[in-house]
Write a structure and sequence with these properties.
single chain; about 210 residues; alpha/beta; four-stranded parallel β-sheet; three-stranded antiparallel β-sheet; elongated
């Protein structure tokens, strides 16, 4: 199938929120029961790997839109490259449960390479797009022990799919960003869970007043 056809089919489904949640849960159950195909060589995941002669499809992001496309497209027909600073998909409706301990964070994530073993994943941030030259400027942090450096590189494409999502909206309310716990990433759930635990432990100290 053509990439555009797959994306259009996903867009036309128009699932309600409860139906979308159930769809993702059933999808995850189906994946757990389906034998995994042989995984692509992770050592070959680099911007400079050999030209396969296939159309180069670059997908920016690893959220809901990108993850749905990655799981449904036939990556054997294209040279697919996923670029995102996060190498896993997060089932965000369950973040509240992860924050309260109902589920563990590892239970609500799926590695991108598990979603589709035939895609090439690059852990990097897309900093710009050269539309005329058909390339994406990327930046990756490379750490060796305690020392880290920034590496800049470019990834060419024939088709570009931008699915980077959005940042948390504070609606311009003063103090929200400085004093609130957001719930959008796995790290947010872990921070909130730790804050809740610290609050209960502090409330149990002998010198803590009822107020």
């Amino acid at each position: 199938e053509d990439v555009g056809t797959i994306y259009a089919d996903l867009s036309n489904r128009q699932l309600s929120y409860p139906a979308l949640v159930m769809d993702r849960l059933l999808d995850g159950l189906e994946d757990s029961l389906t034998p995994k195909p042989k995984r692509a060589n992770i050592g070959a995941h680099s911007p400079a790997r050999k030209d396969t002669g296939k159309a180069k499809v670059v997908i920016l992001g690893s959220g809901w839109g990108a993850h749905a496309l990655i799981k449904t497209m036939d990556a054997t027909k294209y040279d697919v490259c996923v670029i995102s600073p996060r190498n896993f998909f997060v089932f965000t409706p369950m973040l509240a449960g992860a924050a309260t301990g109902t589920v563990e964070c590892r239970s609500i994530t799926e590695p991108i390479r598990e979603a589709n073993p035939f895609v090439n994943y690059l852990e990097a941030t897309a900093t710009g797009v050269d539309v005329k030259g058909k390339s994406v400027q990327c930046q990756s942090v490379i750490c060796d022990g305690a020392e880290c450096s920034i590496q800049d590189f470019q990834v060419p494409y024939d088709k570009l799919i931008v699915s980077v999502g959005a940042s948390v909206n504070t609606f311009g309310i003063p103090g929200v960003k400085e004093n609130c716990y957001f719930l959008k990433q796995v790290g947010d759930a872990s921070s909130l869970r730790q804050a809740i635990g610290n609050t209960f432990e502090r409330a149990n100290l002998p010198d803590m007043s009822p107020e």
